[in-house]
Design brief:
The chain has about 80 residues and is mainly alpha-helical. It has 6 helices and no strands.
Length: about 80
């Protein structure tokens, strides 16, 4: 699966917003393991959930999405 979410950006935004991982997962209505799967690039959130994440973190959705250039750099791990 191609990485959709920039895990580093998401993790830092959650921290800056003052959420714990558990609290943020609850706020977006997913299990904490699912949130970690988004961060690690193993799963992609739905569009609705992506918008919710960005809203809670006061970001634009494109700030959470990996650009094509960064995706190419990280493709293989």
């Amino acid at each position: 699966m191609q990485r959709i979410i920039d895990g580093k950006v998401l993790r830092e935004a959650i921290r800056v917003a003052g959420y714990t991982m558990a609290a943020f997962a609850k706020a977006i209505d997913v299990h904490r393991r699912t949130l970690y799967s988004y961060i690690e690039g193993k799963k992609a959130p739905s569009l609705r959930r992506l918008v919710r994440m960005a809203t809670l973190l006061d970001l634009k959705t494109d700030e959470l999405i990996v650009s094509e250039a960064r995706a190419a750099d990280t493709a293989g791990g």
